[in-house]
Protein: DUF3631 domain-containing protein
Organism: Kitasatospora arboriphila
Amino acid sequence: MNSTSPQPIPGGPAQGWPPVAVPGQPDHFRPAVGQNDVLTDRTDREPGALTGQVTADPVSDPDIFGGMTGSGDLPVTPSSQGAELLCELRSAIARFVILPSEQALDAVTLWVAATHLQPAWQHAPRLAVIGPAKRCGKSRLLDIVTETVHDPLITVNASSAAIFRSITDQPPTLLVDEADTMFGTVKAAEKNEDLRGLLNAGHQRNRPTLRVVGPDHKVVKFPTFAMAALAGIGDLPDTIMDRSVVIRMRRRAPGERVSSYRSDRDNPGLRELRDGLHAWLVPLIDAATDMEPPMPVDDRAADTWEPLVTVADLAGGEWPVRARAACRAMTAFESGQDEDGGLKTRILVDIRRVFAAGGNPDALSTEHLLTALKADHEAPWAEHGPTGLSARGLQLLLKDYGIGSMNIRFPDGVQLKGFTRNGFLDAWSRYCPEPAEPPVTTGS
């Protein structure tokens, strides 16, 4: 049985991020020009900033929409107003902040817009704005987000009781800066375990928190459902990251420029943009509630990204394509970031590659498998442990999949410890299935 070549590892060298969105350089989007334009009514912006023509992205994957053929599949007809508002918001964000990629810029834009339709969503995606160090633009991005989301509720070291008492049937948008001070150490994480539980529960509708209130000790249900943005240094707890659209910020490189942000000067324009988003989206709550957009991912990633993709489909234009491209690229990248889970998935992919390179034999010895894995200079196995990946380390990585080595007699009569190919088939199909061949289409 033949096997196709494995795809590049998400986030690996073969899949680098697209160029960052740099104010002052051509962008794919031209901000809409109008009376309330946040950008074009300014006289002090850099010459040539945020200009360019609207052009389609070169997305070659024909199944990016999961079979959706056009706007006829939507309960409402997309209007140019929505696409133009998203373009204005995208340009406004790019004016003040350097995002790590075009996809990240699209994702933040759609997340902000989605906060204006929270009653329509089944899941409330978190926006995790994280960076490896100070001065990566995390707080500045949160400043811009605060002025454009629906009903911002800013919290710094707030108690969980104060937060869930602020959430109603028309939920605010929670904004937490310096989240690393809440979860960055074991002691802090233990102290804020209630807050982490609230953030986890609030990702899904109908997950209230129960509290005993008043002299009668009456049990009261408090809603937890609300979209939230958290900014901090380093990764947030895994349970929050798994429910988040993750924006990995980085310091600006030499030559990357942004406009200075002054709240008195810039907030009125940002709030006009926020009001425009609200006026466009609120009448579409019923339509958004009924929509089930085709998603390029599944499981929790689909739950988290569905509100963003729905907003893109309501807007039309390039946004449906861009939203799904961002969803695929960013979730694939994050799937390899967890040090433990990412390695466990990668070892499956790399072992499949070793079997394929050898013609997919029925079995390989442990020694041969380790040698081949460590010979790949783009893989982490040569540096996994003091002397590279060992037989014991390989067993530990495969243990959770129920895969182990056994004594195998090879065709030359030698008996060695090794692994059978059949032992990996179930894990390969479940955790790293090879992409299906795209359908052959004719015509334009």
